[in-house]
Specification:
Layout (H helix, E strand, L loop, with lengths): L1 H23 L9 H15 L9 H7 L1
């Protein structure tokens, strides 16, 4: 459950950032499919999961700081 909350937050932040950038550039499409959102979320989690064990631990979070 914690993974979904973390990933949801990451996805929301990523979508918010992309929405801000698209407001400046109307040539980029705003619509995102579910598959694209899941793909972006998986990629973000892969970057966070340093030891590739499928879990984002407190130690990995502290190492990012």
């Amino acid at each position: 459950m914690k993974h979904f909350l973390i990933l949801g937050g990451i996805a929301a932040a990523g979508l918010a950032a992309s929405t801000v950038s698209t407001a400046q550039s109307p040539a980029r499409p705003v619509d995102v499919t579910r598959a694209q959102a899941v793909e972006r979320s998986d990629a973000a989690f892969a970057r966070l999961d340093a030891n590739r064990d499928g879990r984002f631990t407190r130690e990995e979070a502290q190492a990012l700081r």
